[in-house]
Inverse folding.
């Protein structure tokens, strides 16, 4: 195992402590729970935005706390859901009277635990609503869209939900915009090499030297289809086609894209991917208004990448581009 | 009959079995999922056993401790469903120091109900719910618990051979899952070897 | 080889084309040279800041073009210096009458080629000055400081040079501040696994499962010392000690730090590192004013990280924090 | 005597040798440097050979083409130093179609001077400059070029056994470099096997 870590059992605690120490102007530990991170300065009079999920995906989830983004996050162990108690604490910390919107990825443990936490905090008088992000088109057919997993597209939902909440919008309006975003996002990814769980010290799955996995999960679980490795262009063409088959766009539609590295895949390869994505959409006269290229949602040092399409018009566009303060986002 | 002493011995046996099955549970889950089922089960049972000295004659309280153990140690579906189940069981058994057969059946019924509700699954989706369902059916006319657990969880695996898993990410693999056991059902069956 | 690429021979061309297509508001190809990237909008009346170097280090070098940062960059092949002609073109493109400051890393080929390019453009009437960044304390003793290589610390020099130039400062003043920055920066790194050259398709060096290299180079060359892998805390303590032995700081001195991943090493591990760095400096009452944690200067998918210390006071602090527009920098 | 025809045959032979030595040059450089010396030499020589049809009777022009080839293909120290050397040689030979012995010696002297100047190195630093220096000395009383190249580059390697490399990143390894050949000097020696 070639990790720069101490005791694997302290991996999560130490990494979030480092996060808070490194950016004390942005992040803070919740007073009542070391597995809950909040903004350094609590806002007043806005809907709180809460997320939570497993560790090992930085900047997802905790990283996206900040002005114009999230208010609090419950931090689970590596690739594991945070507990009900942690989520409930995050909700309490994020609430300041206007209610809380929970935005989370569609994973069994997370969904169940958030549901329970919302019941508990609801009984304490906190109004909550939940948006379950389901952007991974490889994980279920369009007919079963609600069963899709949430992957990198989640960050776009964080962004617009965070932005509209910052304006003082109601829980209802915040929920509606986040739901609209969730329905306007499609992602598909490939994994080319696995990652290593700190506790296990060995790769999450084996993949031979000439193979890739289409539709990998960000928890290191196998993808839907194993294929021989291809050159970047035909691979990207295939991924773009799958996205466009799933989400019909018309000429002149405006979109943002995110080309996200799962960790090890370098920026150079993301830009080779982005070049082809731009060429493909240009041919269809679909307008890429903005490209986000980098490591936004990772699985530690897994190699691979995902392509996310976000159809933006009206308020989605406005709130995607509104200013935010977060170390992992450039406006 | 179930009481504090028996419960303690059950959890001790389960822990041993979970230790020796750790890799096989992870592997079963890894074929279609994220490979953490061994971790979930082992860590949860370890935490229960770490707190076993706190067990009292109040079975409701004991199950509450068990629920807290799984809440604390598990972030995966299986662990969460078990934690919720233990919590509801604990409410039913509050103040009770002994469970008779009827109450034991009720423990499994509560677990099944909780799992279907919280997991938003139906019977027939090929999950641990289906194993529990068979246990409950068999318990109705058999009080040899060890025998029921073993035969029911085994039969559940057999009944679902050739059927697709309809929940979680396993669903993505479609027909591939026909030939595979559901990892949760597989684990329940293996764990009964403890008795 | 598990890379998402097309023909390895087009790796550089395609990746910079992707960069320009993805951020057309920031980057542009120079009209006369496809291996030279300039700002999308040329500035008037300011000193031009030029860099250049091998590919495979994104965001270094090209990525740091932008308002408040660089004006132009000459892009070499993977881990190889750009040619004299490419550098000369970058200088010409960056000049708008007030002269050009070249900021580059201390590598044989780069230094020689920049020197030659400055002579050529000098003969055409363009005034240039050069700052050769030499921050890697592992690569030479303090007595031979001028011979040290340039690694991640280079980005701090880009930042302050770019920022003061934006104010309309003279070439002399820009050079002086950049030189001061160069003398106020110390970096040391470790590599834990090698990277793969696209053309070669195999790792640049071998390193066994339980070893790390202290003082690795960003070109995949071996470090100065191979050691058994250690836990993060003693490793970080050792690196901090080496930096502080080299660069004496006093109580209440203000610094910025950069914990830089060479590529594959995930953010979680950088934060575990950062936690310890913060603890170490806190003990000495040295004030970390700002922490930059992420992938700033990489060697493709190499695993490992470097720690950079930047002593900031007066103008250095002012210009480090002044606003800039660059996709790889959050203000 | 050196003219267009001989120069062409030299570069053809060097290219073949560079091909068969590719891995060993990279490996020699990889022990202390970035392992690209084989790449640099092979690509530079390939580019020269790709342009060999453009060679004319003007030796100055031919060396200019050679310089451009290395400028285009190489971003490493070795290639850059060779490119600069070829450029200065080209200036000296402008308009000449043949070089006599004195002019051949001058070619090496120009290369040596350029490398020391541009590389900011001194003789004794254990670099290709030291090999060139020995070639120049030996050429003074021996016109058997092939013999001189072979013996001089070999002797240079021997003379510097046990001495530290004082330039570039090799310097970082201190005493380790005593036992190692400088990769550039090693490559020069191997390339002379072409003749
Ligand atoms: N929604 C659900 N309803 C019923 N059982 C479930 C559900 N989700 C998971 N399970 C059971 O748990 C097992 C997987 O557990 P686990 O590995 O903890 O899940 P994951 O890691 O996917 O969150 C499955 O094999 C299944 O038997
Ligand atoms: N400054 C210099 N002066 C003289 N010779 C040099 C210099 N730098 C490198 N060399 C020669 O070139 C060889 C290394 O070449 P190369 O691999 O191209 O360098 P790098 O990859 O480090 O830029 C050395 O072995 C040495 O003989
Ligand atoms: Mg699992
Ligand atoms: Mg799981
Ligand atoms: Mg080299
Ligand atoms: Mg080199």
């Amino acid at each position: 195992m070639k990790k720069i870590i101490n005791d694997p059992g302290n991996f999560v605690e130490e990494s979030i402590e480092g996060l808070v120490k490194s950016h004390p102007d942005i992040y803070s530990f919740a007073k009542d729970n070391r597995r809950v991170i909040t903004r350094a300065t609590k806002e007043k009079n806005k809907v709180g935005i809460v997320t939570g999920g497993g560790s090992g995906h930085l900047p997802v989830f905790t990283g996206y706390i900040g002005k114009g983004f999230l208010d609090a996050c419950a931090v689970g162990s590596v690739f594991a859901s945070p507990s009900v108690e942690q989520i409930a604490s995050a909700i309490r910390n994020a609430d300041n009277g206007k209610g809380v919107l929970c935005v989370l990825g569609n994973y069994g443990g997370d969904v169940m635990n958030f549901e329970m936490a919302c019941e508990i905090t609801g009984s304490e008088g906190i109004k909550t609503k939940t948006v379950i992000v389901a952007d991974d088109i490889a994980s279920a057919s369009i007919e079963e869209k609600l069963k899709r997993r949430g992957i990198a597209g989640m960050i776009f939902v964080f962004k617009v939900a965070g932005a509209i909440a910052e304006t003082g919008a109601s829980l209802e309006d915040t929920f509606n915009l986040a739901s609209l975003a969730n329905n306007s996002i499609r992602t598909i990814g490939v994994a080319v090499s696995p990652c290593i769980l700190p506790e296990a010290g060995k790769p999450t799955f084996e993949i031979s030297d000439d193979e890739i996995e289409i539709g990998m999960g960000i928890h290191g679980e196998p993808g839907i289809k194993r294929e021989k490795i291809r050159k970047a262009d035909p691979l990207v063409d295939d991924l773009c086609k799958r996205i466009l088959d799933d989400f019909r766009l018309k000429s002149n539609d405006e979109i943002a894209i995110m080309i996200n590295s799962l960790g090890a895949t370098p920026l150079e390869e993301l830009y080779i991917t982005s070049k082809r994505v731009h060429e493909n959409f240009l041919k269809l006269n679909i307008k890429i208004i903005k490209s986000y290229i980098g490591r936004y949602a990772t699985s530690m040092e897994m190699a691979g990448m995902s392509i996310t399409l976000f159809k933006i018009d009206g308020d989605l566009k406005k709130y995607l581009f509104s200013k935010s303060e977060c170390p992992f986002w450039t406006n | 009959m179930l009481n504090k002493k028996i419960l303690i011995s059950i959890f001790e046996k389960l822990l041993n079995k979970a230790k020796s099955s750790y890799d096989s549970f992870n592997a079963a889950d890894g074929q279609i999922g994220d490979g953490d089922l061994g971790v979930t089960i082992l860590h949860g049972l370890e935490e229960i056993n770490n707190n076993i000295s706190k067990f009292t004659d109040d079975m409701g309280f004991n199950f509450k401790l068990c629920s807290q153990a799984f809440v604390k140690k598990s972030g995966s579906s299986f662990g969460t469903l078990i934690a919720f189940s233990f919590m509801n069981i604990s409410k039913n058994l509050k103040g009770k120091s002994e469970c008779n057969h009827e109450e034991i059946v009720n423990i499994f019924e509560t677990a099944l109900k909780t799992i279907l509700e919280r997991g938003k699954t139906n019977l027939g989706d090929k999950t641990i719910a289906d194993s529990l369902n068979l246990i409950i059916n068999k318990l109705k006319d058999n009080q040899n618990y060890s025998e029921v657990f073993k035969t029911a969880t085994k039969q559940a695996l057999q009944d679902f051979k050739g059927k697709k898993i309809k929940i979680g990410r396993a669903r993505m693999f479609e027909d591939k899952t026909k030939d595979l056991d559901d990892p949760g059902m597989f684990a329940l069956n293996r764990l009964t070897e403890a008795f």
Remarks:
- Residues B 29, 33-34, 36-37, 76 surround magnesium ion (ligand 3) (CB under 6 Å).
- The CA atoms of residues 26 and 35 of chain D lie 5 Å apart.
- The beta strands of chain D are 2-3, 98-99.
- DSSP finds eight helices and two strands in chain D.
